[in-house]
Amino acid sequence: MDIHTDLFGTALLDFHQGNYTEDIGVLSDSMEDDVLPLPYLFRDYKQMPVIEKKALELSKGAVLDVGAGSGSHSLYLEVTGLQVTALDQSSGAIQVLKERLQQPGSKVLHENIWNHKGSYDTILLLMNGTGIFEKLDRVPLCLELLKKLLHKNGQILIDSSDLRFLYEDEEDGGLWVDSSKEYYGEVSFSLHYKGMESEPFDWLYMDYKLLETYATQAGFKIEMVQKGVHYDYLARLYI
């Protein structure tokens, strides 16, 4: 995600400090423009989709919440007694996290996951966690880096969606996609907030079979633990 303008962090701070006037606009090169409601980013457990609830239920031990944002997942986990490290690249998100996470033992880190050093029982990658891979050709390296962050019996809980439904021809089942892309799940986004627009950034959606292939090649075992209601899923990776 574009961290130089940090529109995402600015929006989180505005909502957290009571200055909520508009939501984040999400612009895409291959999908319809969308809106990311700020109240949704501050949702509590009852408001979470079933995939997120399942991931929190399966979390154990020392947890690394990657791209923690406003801290919705971290807040729930720390209350349940787990040791939580909330990590984000956004300086605005970090300020919000530091004010919201209060339990002893919780940590907040302003850091890129690929530069992070640590060891965890659970790595949590939610809200299309495969997005942090950015491009398909980066997946093998990213999985190797994540593997180094796991305890011996650790796990990665990651969700994504299969975007095939956006491009599939209903009559013959063929895919009408941009031939310049290696994979139809490669998307470029930019954010729009209060008259400002971020630099474009790459984001990757992976169907389960493709994630399974890459995970297996990287030495992981993988299982689908939850299907969502709209082509989305939660997967568990472990050694």
Summarize the structure.
With 239 residues, the chain is α/β, with parallel strands linked by helices.
Our measurement of the CA-to-CA distance between the termini, rounded to an integer number of angstroms, reads: 28 Å
Number of continuous helical runs: 8
Cα radius of gyration in angstroms: 18 Å
Query: Please, what is the average pLDDT?
Result: 93
> What do we call the CATH homologous superfamily of the domain at 51-163 and 205-238?
Vaccinia Virus protein VP39
Helix percent band? 25-40%
CATH topology of the domain at 51-163 and 205-238, by name, is Rossmann fold
Strand order of the largest sheet: 5-4-3-6-7-12-11
> Based on DSSP secondary structure assignment, what is the total number of beta strands?
12
Q: What spatial form do the alpha-carbon principal axes imply?
A: globular
Quaternary state reads single chain
CATH class of the domain at 51-163 and 205-238: Alpha Beta
DSSP strand content: 25-35%
Per CATH, which architecture of the domain at 51-163 and 205-238?
3-Layer(aba) Sandwich
Q: Sheet with the most strands?
A: 7 strands, mixed
